[in-house]
């Protein structure tokens, strides 16, 4: 629904933070400066 309204969507699963907060933050920062519509870090959202 958010994507249909033109929003970019990021999902960060808790397990990604347990692995490495720094790497997760870096990935989010790169996504924020990029043009990808969706970011998923951690568990798949199938």
Strand content bin: 15-25%
Biggest sheet strand order reads 1-2
Major sheet size, sense and barrel closure: 2 strands, parallel
Number of H/I helices: 2
Order of helices and strands: EHHE
The count of β-strands is 2
Q: Which structural class is indicated by helix and strand composition?
A: alpha+beta
- Rg from Cα: 11 Å
Shape: flat
Provide mean pLDDT, rounded. Answer: 89
As for the number of domains, it is 1
Q: Uncertain regions: pLDDT < 50 for 5+ in a row?
A: none
Walkthrough of the structure:
This protein is an alpha+beta fold. It has one domain (3-41). Helices cover 41% and strands 17% of the residues. The chain contains two helices and two strands, in the order βααβ. It has helices at 14-19, 21-33; strands at residues 9-12, 38-41. The protein has a two-stranded parallel ribbon with strand order 1-2. It starts with 8 loop residues before the first strand and ends in a 5-residue tail after the last strand. The mean pLDDT is 89.
In short, what is this structure?
By secondary structure, the chain is an alpha+beta fold.
How would the blueprint of this fold be written?
Elements lengths: L8 E4 L1 H6 L1 H13 L4 E4 L5
């Amino acid at each position: 629904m958010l994507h249909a309204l033109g929003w970019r969507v990021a999902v960060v699963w808790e397990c990604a933070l347990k692995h490495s907060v720094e790497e997760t933050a870096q990935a989010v920062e790169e996504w924020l400066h990029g043009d990808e519509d969706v970011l998923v870090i951690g568990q798949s959202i199938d």
